[in-house]
Each structure stands twice: as C-alpha cells, then as structure tokens.
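Lab notebook, page 48
Experiment: co-folding of the full assembly
Goal: obtain a model of how the components sit together before planning crosslinking
Operator: M.T.
Materials (sequences as entered):
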Amino acid sequence: MSNVSMSAISYTPNIISSQLLQDLNLDQNQQATIEAQLGSGDVVNAPSDNPAAAASIMQLNSGLSRAKQYVTNANDGVGWLSLGTSTLNSVISTLQSAQQAVSALSGEALSSQQAAVTGTTAQLKSTLQQVLALANTTYGGQAIFAGTGNVNQAYDSSGNYVGGGAAPARTVAPGVSVQVSLTGPQVFGSGSTGLLGSSGVLQQLITDVSAGTTTSLQKATTTDLSALSDALQSVTGQAAVMGANYQRMTGFANQATSAQTALQTQISSEDSVNLAQASTQLTQDQQTYQAGLWATSQIEEHSLVNYL
Amino acid sequence: MSNISLSIASSGIDAAQTAMDTIAQNLSNANTPGYVSETPDLVTYNGGGVLHDGAGVGVRGISQAGDSLLTNSANQAAGNLSQSSALQQVLSQAQLAFQEPSATGLSSDLNSFWQSWDTIASNPTSQAGRSQVIDNAQNLVADLQQAHAQLQTTATAAVNQLDSTVQSTNGLLAKVANLNGQITATQATGSSANALIDQRNAAMTQLAESIGAVGAPQSDGSMQVTVGGITLVQGNWSDSISVQNSSGTYSIQAATSQATLTNSAGTTAGLVGALNSYLPSYQSQLDTVANNLENVVNSQLAAGYTATGAAGTALFTGSGAGGIGLNQAIVNDPTQLAAASTSTLPDASNDGSNAQTMANLFDAPNGPDAVYQTLILNVGNQVSNMQNQVTAQTSVSNAANQNLQSIAGVNQNDQLVALMNWQQDYQASAKVISSVNEAVQSLIANV
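Observation: model returned without errors.
Model output:
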C-alpha cells in the first residue's frame, strides 16, 4: 500500500478502489518475479531482468566453457605424456640390458664365445623388435612418435621413419601450448647414430656380433657399444624432456580445474537465486498481498449505502 | 397571500425533485467512463409586491463539475503511458528472440562451436570432431535464423497493431465530429447536452491514448482536436489518418492536409518508434553478429588446408542473420574443413594447428561473441528502461486521473448525504403546502 499519499484531493470510492487495484497488481507482479526466479533457479531470466548481469553471465559462461576445454586438453595431454614417458622408460631398460649383454661379450672365454655370440645376437634382434614396437606406440589410435606426418605408425617394419612434421601440442591456457609428445628422430635419432633402421646402431651391433670374428666382436664391444651408449643417453635426455612436459601439463590441468571452479562459483553468485532470501521475500510479499486484499474487502464494504 | 406560499412551496418541491433526479443520475453513472458529476444550478426567484418577500426557487440548469486543465493533463498522461506501454510490449516481444542467458541460446552455442574445434585439434583424423563442428555450425545458423524470424514476426505484429489502431482512431475522430454537431445544436436550443459531452470526453481520452490528441473547447460547445498542430476535428468536420510506409519507415499521415503527424504520444507513436528505430537496430546488430561470425571463421579457414592438402574454403555462406547458411560441400564431407596449417601430405590429414587457432578465437576482440554480448546488453537495457518508464508513467497517469476524479468523479457518500438534504427539503416544502391548506380550510370552515 505504498501509493497512498496524503494530498488534498477528495477521495471518491473510485479513486480508492483504483489505487487498491494498482497496489494489488504491484504486489502480484513482485510475487510473479520471485516465483519465476524460484522456478528457474536463476536471478536473471531475460536480458531485461538485469542487463549488466546478463552480459557478464554470458562472458563468464564463455570463459567457463573455455576453462572446461583447457581441462579436457590438459587431461588429454597428460594421457599422451604419461604413455610417452613410460614408453621411453621401457626403451631405456631394454637398451640397458642390450648394453650389458654386449659388454659381457668382451670378457667371454674363447671356448664359450660361439654360444655367447648366438645368445647375444638373439637378444639384440629381440631388442631391435622391442624398440621398434615401442617406437610405434599409439594413443587413441595415433602413433605418438610420428609427429603430424602419419596417424598409424612412426616406423615401418625395416625401421625407417615414416612420420613427419612436428610433434602434436595441446593448448592448455590462453596462449600456452605444450607439446604432448616428441618425434621419432628426436627420441631414436637417425642414420648411423640412430637406434633404428638398416644403418642404425642396433642393426650394426647385430651385424658385428653375429659375424662372430675377433675383429667384428672387437668393433662391437668398442665402437658400436659406445654408439649404443650415446643413443641411450639421448633417449634418457628426451625422457627427461618428456617428464618435464608431463609435470607442466599436470600443473596446467590443475590450474584449469581451479579456474573452472572459480568461474562456476562466480556465475552462481551472479545468477543463482538465494533460496532463503527469495522465499522470505515471497512470504513477505504474500503477506502484503493478503493485507491488501483484506483492506480492499474492508474499505469496499464501508459505504453510506450500508447504513441508510 | 396564501396562494403565493403554495407556489413558493411547489417551486421548492420541483427544485428538490430535480436535485434528487441529478443525484440519481450521478449515482447510476458513478462508473461510466467520461461521466462528469452534475449539480443543479439553483436560483432564487425575486417576488414582486411591496415587501419583495420572494417567489421561491428555480432550476437554471444542470452544470458539470468538469475541469478542462485536469482533463487535459489526465489525457496527456494517458497518451504518454500508452506510448511507453506499446513500445515496451513490442520490445519485450523482440527480446524473446534472444534467449539469454541460458544453456540453449546463441551464446552457449557459440561456446560449443569453439570447443568443437579443440576436438578436431586433438584428433584431426577423427570424423567425430569434424562432425561436431558441422553440427554446432548448424545450431548457430538455426539460432541466428530463428532470432531473425522472431524479430520479423514482432515487426509484423506491430504493423498490424498500428493498422488497427489507426482504423479505430478514424472511427473516434468521426464520432467526436458527430457529437460536436449534436452538442452545438442542442446547446443552441438551450437544452442540456451533458450526456453528449460525457460521451465526447470518453472518446477524447481514447484519442489521447491512441494518437496523443489534444482537445481545445470552442465557444460554440464543440471540441477542436489537434495532433502536433494539425487539426483533425473542427466542428462537425473530421479528417481521417492513414499509415504510410516508405521503404520500411512508418509514419501517420492526415488525409486532407497530407501532413505527417509528428505526435510524440499515444499507442501509434510507440509503435512507429519501435518500427522505425528499435526493431531495425536490433535486426542490424543481429546481422552484424552473423556477418562477423562468417568473416572470422571463413578467413581463418582460408588460412588453412583441408585433410587432402587443398586450400581451405568458407564454411558459412550468405549474409545477415536471415541469409546465413552452410557450405553444403563441407557439410557433406567434413574432411574439407581446413584444420591443418600445412598443405604437405600426409601431414595435412593429421595436423590440427589451424583448428586450434580457430578455437582460440572464442574471445577475439570484436569477434561474434563480443558483438553479441553488446547486442544483449543493448536490448536488455532498452527493455528494462522501458519497463521502468511504464511503471513511472502509470503512477503519473493514475495520479492525474485521481486528481480529475476528485473533481469530476462521483463520491457516493457525498451524493447520499445530499440526497437526504433534498429529501428533507422536499418534505419541508410539502409540509408548507399542507399547513397552508389547513389554514385555508380552517378559514373556510369559520366563514
């Protein structure tokens, strides 16, 4: 009953009833607004409810969907990098056993050398197969060491690199993109210093060890062994790079998740109905409305007509 | 002597009877629109003779408690309120074109669209990511076209309302002219034209609401009706008005003078305002959003290469929110989306760097998202301002009506008290007649 002003006008029953109706309508509108808010759970249900908040909610939602995407991207990257790191660890341990087997050859007595040569050759061949298989590791159907050049495999069965381009990367924060893998040549080298291929270190070792002559075994335990150890060092170095990227990626995944939470909190503080407040307000409005109805029934009853 | 007493008493009975008739008229018309409370104009009759002891009471006429200043200000307030209400209704209707903020509006579909480019970037060879981009692009096109259609529907509804308002206004103008003629003729014979004036008052209020018409009472009892200085009713002559549409700009024109009504009040003014400035502005801002989306996406695609290494082609075609569409070749074969930034094969089929650059455009300054947010802010502000204006003008109009009602309205309690007074007057005059009668009777009996 906010509109009743004490002006000097003479109140006819028409004025009073129109004022009462106006006030009752106002009360009803307020109730409808609160009911819409409670029904939808949102304070802003149309741009005109609060234009600035509507624009800000849209902006926050856009930021939120971006943050969610960063979380997805970072989690995908974490998957790639953890697979890559464990693959490289397997490569390293495989190469380390090969290294030990070849070093052992130099101390072998001549009598048992033939058996050792056969055994070591077999181990080296299987090492080559294992490394080749590891180099073709896939994540979700994509060969992780193939760069952008090939989807299915990084190396063919003869150990030739069939990938190409740079290693894939994931965008994890505005303007920040982290590589989720490495290319084959970065990890396994190439040509005569590379691990794989017909002229690679492992193939060279197999050739020299299996030849079994004193000269070839001499070469295998010196030149070839040191080439293997260089290659192993390079793989270890790249594993460290990948490990560092894994750490960064995990960091970004956490950061994006907390950004997502913060944005969600902000959106709900802008747009979510404070249930306690809204229902209290609704109760108050209902009481005002009932009081208004009561007043209307009282005032409209009182006319001189009733007493004549 | 006594015959004069009888005639004085009988004039009192007549006056009381007329007054009670007036009260009955007032009470029965308490809720009639345009009705103005009436009171009898009483006058004392001077008696002749030496003592000038009076000749009773007479009814000179029945006057109305009207106040032309209050009537005009109430009508003006009603005209302003009608204008704002009409505009507010159209704008609220237009606002429905933008379902924001929500999880289904254009804004959220834009978010999904940019996100789906990330999916391509993560796995360029997967068909799923590419189909997702096409699906989301189709959603965007549907959103834009729906918003465009909703704005057009709103405009069509406003034009229809404008036409029907103008039609009913022409009826009212003719009615006022007709009443003018009858009132002038009735008053010339000295009779009361109050009932006709009440009808004209009601018509004037409706005219103020529809075209913001202003009335000026003339000496012959007629009412001159003008809008922005252009006379539409003069005496018993009335003009008619019509809606003019010159390539999308609407105006109201008077038939005889061919002059455009520059009215700034009434339903028609609100509708013309909505049709000439608000709706075209929303439509053009929405077109900007569509064209901007098209430019941003297409130029980024042009910088990239398809999965087969061919130069990227446009995804969006057409122009404006109503005309935007998708390149069917890409819809049929999503590998033609230029996700790669290299044309070398096989890299192109497995490179998602251009898709990633595309995904990063979600917050491009002056990009479609930013332009759309500005549009929503504009629409929201204008609708909310208009709602506030309607609330304020409703109060103004109610106050003006109450002021008018307090003068011209019928207060039942007052009328009932007056009724009792006149009843007593009537009884008193009747008592005088019976007393005089008794006196004369006793005189006759004694003679």
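Interpretation: The two ends of chain A are 30 Å apart (CA to CA).
Next step: discuss with group before ordering constructs.
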